[in-house]
Amino acid sequence: MINIILSNIAYEYDVYTLVKAFYPEETIKVIGKDEFHQIEADNNIILEVSSSVKSKEASTVLLREISVDFLEDCIQFTFADTSYKSHIQTLTIDASTPKAQYKNAMKRMLYGMLSETTHRTLPWGILTGIRPTKLVYEMLEEGHQDTEIREKMKEVYLCSEAKLSMSLRIAKREEQLLREIDYRQGYSLYIGIPFCPSTCLYCSFTSYSIAKYSNYVEAYLVALQKEIEYAATCFPDKRLTTVYFGGGTPTTLTAEQLDYLLGLVKKNFDFTHVKEFCVEAGRPDSITREKLQVLKKWGVDRISINPQSMQQKTLDLIGRKHTVDEIKEAFHLARETGHENINMDIIIGLPGENPEDVADTLKQINELNPDSLTVHTLAIKRAARLNIEKENYSNLKASEVPAMLEQTIEYAEKNDYLPYYLYRQKNMADNLENIGYARYGKEGLYNILIMEEQQTILALGAGGMSKFVFHEENRIERVDNVKSVTDYISRIDEMIARKQQFLQQNDNL
Q1: Contact present, 462 and 494 (Cβ < 8 Å)
Q2: How much is the mean pLDDT over the chain?
Q3: Are residues 324 and 459 both part of a single domain?
Q4: Which DSSP state fits 80?
């Protein structure tokens, strides 16, 4: 365990995430300085060390404690190892320095000490948020030149050349695509279907087994209809830009249920200016010809069939109740029924996989020739079974994850897939990222809008998180729905009231 002791708990997230990026296997506890002194006075402080971190030079560093003191004219950092030796560095900086500059200076100093201790660097430098390209996008919007952007990303955020080049390329593509959309005057719609054939080992999303929750589906759709009918009244003066059905797996619904739900949305919303209507078909074991025909009937123009891996051993391990052949069959069926924009997702860093497995997965996907490919790096979330039951999978860690990512980059380049959006998540393998690739004209516009937070997203269904973007104020507000299916059904009037109250209080949106 590494204890982090802070004199100002306001910087907890910034310090914790940076330390965790260097020590992903360690348990890290953050303690306020006052609380720490109280524990110390009571002689109850427990300082544990759970594992060692080996550097590239094969030396071993065991960190016990990191203390950060935010003083009036400086910040003092103290690193203590298990032999109780301390290393102290001081950053001279006035507390009246603008907050963003103060925070970044603090993170650069901490990064330098952690890098020196572990003999490692991080590809994204001090950037620990999930939207690194948003910074680049905003600088492009403000009219900054490439050289200025590169200089700031390197000097302020310590971003590597490779990640900087990727960010700049993606942000320029996003800017080009969004230029064709009046996103400031529009909004997008997200509808969540929180049911899946089974729950994957790594999943922490709002999803419930359709086998166990089948009795709730009809009641869920009744509640969802009520929210849809209300949502259609929210923005009479805005144009609907994109519609996205996610989950869960929307195609766990029957063909009849899908037909009714999609028809309901088309009836209540004006699709005149909609640029993209996307449904996550997701799991191959939820796809039928009849369902694919229903999607075409209602004008769905982008779907996603997500294998995650084309290795049967991996599919079995992570709880995907289908075969590799079923993935291929579902894809071919989608083509036969007229779907011309199909995305496929894969995850690198899955338990037990190595670069040879990823190479074979890419080879099999290449034979299918999807229109876009989204490459996720495994992020182990707190609520996922892979984390809760981690002792059962400790001997199945993926090897050489950065090499896997390089394989996917090379594959995309070779097969004319252009990177068009990027995001990161907490606890990602090797501090890497997720990248969306697409053939020209096949990009997922909703993905850009939600990740770059450039447009209001009205989110419906269990677990939906609406984001309201106030461009003039550079402000984003969130209004969430409950995650539980049963709570959503019983509290649907409250979910509607939350949005209603927010919109009444913010009639300038």
Answers
A1: no
A2: 89
A3: yes
A4: E
d(CA 322, CA 149): 46
* Residue 137: other Cβ atoms inside 10 A: 24
- Kindly give the residue spans of alpha helices, DSSP state H, lying in 72-145: 99-118, 132-141
Q: Are residues 139 and 191 in the same domain?
A: no
For 66, the domain range is 2-118
pLDDT of 369 strictly over 60: yes
H/E run at residue 91: strand 86-92
pLDDT on residue 321? 81
Q: Tokens 């766990």 map to which residue?
A: 252
Burial class (CB in 10 A: 0-12, 13-18, 19+), 6: buried
238-249: buried (b, 16+ CB within 10 Å) or exposed (e) per residue?
bbbbbbbbbbbb
pLDDT in tens, 100-116: 999 999 999 999 999 99
Whether residue 85 sits in one domain with residue 50: yes
CATH of the domain at 262: 3.80.30
Q: What confidence tens digit (pLDDT) does each residue in 77-96 have?
A: 999 987 767 889 999 999 89
Q: Which amino acid is at 357?
A: D
Residues 82/60, Cβ–Cβ less than 8 Å: no
Classify the C-alpha dihedral 9-14-16-22 as positive or negative.
negative
Q: Which tens digit of pLDDT belongs to each residue from 304-321?
A: 999 999 999 999 888 888
Whether residues 159 and 190 fall in one domain: no
Based on the fold, state whether residues 114 and 157 are members of the same structural domain: no
Whole-number pLDDT of residue 24:
85
In this structure, the answer to whether residues 102 and 52 fall within a common structural domain is yes
Residue 317 lies in a domain: yes
Residue 212 lies in a domain: yes
Domain count, the chain: 3
- Side chain identity, residue 499: K
**What is the spatial distance between Cα 135 and Cα 54, in angstroms, rounded to a whole number?**
33
Rg of the chain, C-alpha, whole Å: 24
